[in-house]
């Protein structure tokens, strides 16, 4: 083993300490791993952390220094880790692979001395220093991977060699730089870039970690885009005290359960029903054992491969052994110790998706992958089963049927069931402000009686098309209650702005609705028809009345839907009587909602 003998370096490194920061599952809050972050560099005589490694590289002792630091991090983290399947993420200076003092085999020896296995460690490679295209560098990274170590690309997008780095490392994880995460919710360009990185990563069979998540908005945006894990101050700041580390961070699970609008949770039952629990093989399985499995189980075209923590590594296809199956001495070659017991050389990476993902996300991940088998499904990063292309098709078909069943047959807008769900979710999500908007046509019965139901349906379709256009934003939801009653829900927008928008919306509808009348009615501004009481009189042309109820954020909404519906009914009456045909109200105290 390479040993550091320079007394000056030994003295300075003795001052170095490590803090740890959790990397957690974005859906459940379960700790997947902890990144070791170097501390006390200034006390050790280095202006920056980079300066420490720069000097070590210049003096030709980078590998020796790195091994000392690895041992310090491993020893400190071992007290917390015990037997938990939690990874230690350790930053690897890319120049290490070309350092004059580099020697292979030292990491495994260090791991064994502290009770670790290769499955417990992930090396982070950053874009700070380019990976040279030398054969040695590529071989070294391949050697780490063949030994079972995980590789992560750190600070993805922060440098100029990102694609080159992805090419050489073929990473298991991609960590998106904090720059792209900051203000992600309000920056469409960043959302596009992060979404592109996530899609690329999943195409490559990588999982995505968002770094530097500091706010609930950033967390929610990362989850909506499809990141698999998060790291940052919002979860926990780096800490020198391993006693402060947790195996689970309930805050994240609570946020997920509170986000009732997360349609992915409703897809989980559908996805579980289609998962094929194909039994995996373990990465320490011998080549000859796997060879025999393929030989005896003729129907098996592939096997998923997992490590000892049930984390999927990819699949091994039966075609990987075809050269040996048809070779006269194929079995003898596989049994040859020189060939080794390592099955990693036969593993093909496959896209991995979380059980908490939406059906649409699973379809998107699969369609971007240029393969045939399907997707490996995980729960808390542990292998759960396999989704074949046929299962994916059945799943999307079942979901489309479910959506169709809950749509209004005329307008194809979500019907009462989905509107009820939205209403319930809005009452439960007190962290967000909502506007509940109800539309009710005026004088529609008289129009139907005069011009017929077919023309009445045309008028309803025109309004539904207008409503669909007005609700295209992600934070908006439109539905058709039935007849001439419609609904719109808006999350996170101010009532003053929306009220002005709805007035303009109603004015446009009034103008467009006139074209559904004959010339005489348009000229007079009314038609002669019977009212609801059966009395023949002059009936004004069709307009729409709008009732807007604001639910402010961080206000207790402990009330029933029926109680709130009474308020909305009152607002609808006021709107019909108002000259503007609009009425709005804000509820600040739900404890008195029955008295309103």
Q: Describe the biggest sheet? A: 8 strands, mixed, barrel
Q: What is the annotated CATH architecture of the largest domain?
A: Alpha-Beta Barrel
Unreliable residue stretches: none
Compute the average pLDDT.
84
CATH third-level topology of the largest domain: TIM Barrel
- How many H/I helices? 22
Helix content: 40-55%
Distance between the amino and carboxyl termini:
79 Å
Strand content: 15-25%
- Per CATH, the class of the largest domain reads Alpha Beta
Structural class: alpha/beta
Spell out the CATH superfamily of the largest domain.
EAL domain
Global geometry: elongated
Global Rg: 31 Å
Which secondary structure elements does this structure contain, and how are they paired or packed?
Blueprint: H1 7-13, E1 17-25, E2 31-39, H2 49-58, H3 62-81, E3 87-92, H4 106-113, E4 121-125, H5 135-146, E5 150-156, H6 162-169, E6 173-176, H7 178-181, H8 188-203, E7 207-210, H9 216-225, E8 229-230, H10 250-258, H11 264-274, E9 281-282, H12 287-296, E10 302-306, E11 312-317, H13 322-325, H14 330-335, E12 352-354, H15 359-368, E13 375-379, E14 382-387, H16 389-405, H17 416-428, E15 434-442, H18 444-451, H19 453-470, E16 476-482, E17 485-491, H20 495-513, H21 519-524, E18 526-530, E19 536-540, E20 543-551, H22 561-577, E21 582-586
Parallel strand pairs: 2-3, 3-4, 4-5, 5-6, 6-7, 7-8, 9-10, 12-13, 20-21
Antiparallel strand pairs: 1-2, 1-8, 10-11, 13-14, 15-17, 15-20, 16-17, 18-19
Helix pairs in contact: 3-4, 8-15, 11-16, 15-16, 18-19
């Amino acid at each position: 083993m390479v040993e550091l003998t320079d007394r000056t370096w030994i003295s300075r490194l003795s001052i170095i300490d490590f803090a740890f920061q959790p990397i957690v599952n974005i859906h459940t809050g379960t700790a997947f791993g902890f990144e070791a972050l170097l501390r006390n560099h200034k006390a050790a005589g280095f202006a920056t952390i980079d300066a420490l490694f720069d000097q070590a590289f210049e003096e030709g002792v980078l590998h020796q220094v790195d091994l000392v630091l690895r041992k310090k991090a491993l020893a400190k983290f071992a007290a917390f880790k015990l037997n938990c399947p939690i990874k230690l993420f350790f930053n690897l200076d890319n120049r290490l692979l070309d350092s004059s003092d580099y020697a292979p085999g030292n990491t495994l020896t260090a791991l064994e001395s502290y009770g670790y296995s290769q499955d417990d460690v992930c090396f982070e490679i950053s874009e700070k220093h380019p990976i040279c295209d030398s054969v040695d560098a590529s071989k070294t990274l391949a050697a780490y991977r063949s030994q079972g170590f995980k590789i992560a690309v750190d600070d993805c997008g922060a440098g100029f060699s990102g694609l080159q780095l992805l090419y050489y490392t073929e990473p298991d994880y991609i960590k998106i730089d904090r720059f792209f995460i900051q203000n992600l919710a309000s920056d469409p360009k960043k959302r596009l870039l992060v979404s592109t990185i996530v899609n690329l990563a999943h195409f490559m069979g990588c999982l995505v970690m968002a770094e530097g998540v500091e706010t609930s908005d950033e967390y929610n945006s990362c989850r909506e885009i499809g990141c698999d894990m998060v790291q940052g101050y919002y979860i926990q700041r780096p800490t020198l005290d391993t006693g402060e580390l947790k195996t689970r961070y309930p805050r994240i699970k609570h946020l997920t359960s509170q986000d009732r609008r997360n349609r992915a949770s409703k897809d989980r039952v559908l996805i579980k029903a289609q998962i094929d629990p194909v039994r995996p093989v373990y990465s320490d399985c011998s080549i000859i054992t796997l060879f025999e499995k393929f030989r005896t189980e003729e129907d098996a075209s592939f096997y998923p491969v997992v490590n000892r923590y049930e984390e999927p590594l990819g699949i091994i296809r039966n075609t990987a052994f075809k050269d040996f199956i048809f070779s006269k001495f194929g079995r003898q070659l596989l049994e040859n110790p020189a060939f080794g017991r390592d099955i990693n050389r036969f593993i093909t990476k496959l896209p991995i998706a979380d059980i908490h993902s939406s059906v649409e996300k699973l379809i998107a991940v699969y369609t971007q992958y240029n393969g045939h088998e399907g997707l490996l499904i995980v729960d808390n990063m542990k292998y759960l089963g396999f989704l074949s292309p046929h299962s994916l098709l059945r799943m999307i078909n079942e979901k489309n049927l479910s959506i169709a069943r809950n749509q209004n047959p005329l307008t194809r807008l979500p019907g009462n069931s989905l509107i009820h769900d939205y209403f319930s979710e809005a009452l439960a999500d007190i962290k967000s402000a909502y506007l509940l908007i109800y539309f009710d046509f005026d004088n529609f019965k008289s129009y139907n009686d005069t011009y017929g139901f077919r023309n009445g349906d045309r008028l309803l379709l025109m309004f539904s098309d207008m409503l669909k256009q007005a609700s295209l934003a992600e934070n908006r939801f439109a539905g058709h209650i039935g007849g001439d009653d419609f609904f719109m829900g808006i999350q996170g927008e101010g009532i003053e702005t929306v009220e002005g928008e709805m007035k303009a919306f109603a004015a446009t509808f009034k103008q467009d609705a006139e074209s559904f009348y004959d010339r005489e009615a348009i000229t007079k501004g009314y038609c002669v028809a019977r009212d609801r009481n059966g009395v023949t009189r002059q009936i004004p042309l069709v307009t729409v009345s709008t009732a807007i109820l604001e639910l402010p954020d961080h206000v207790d909404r402990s009330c029933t839907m029926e109680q709130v519906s009474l308020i909305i009914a009152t607002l609808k009456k006021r709107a019909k009587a108002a000259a503007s045909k609009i009425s709005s109200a804000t509820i600040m105290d739900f404890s008195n909602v029955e008295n309103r």
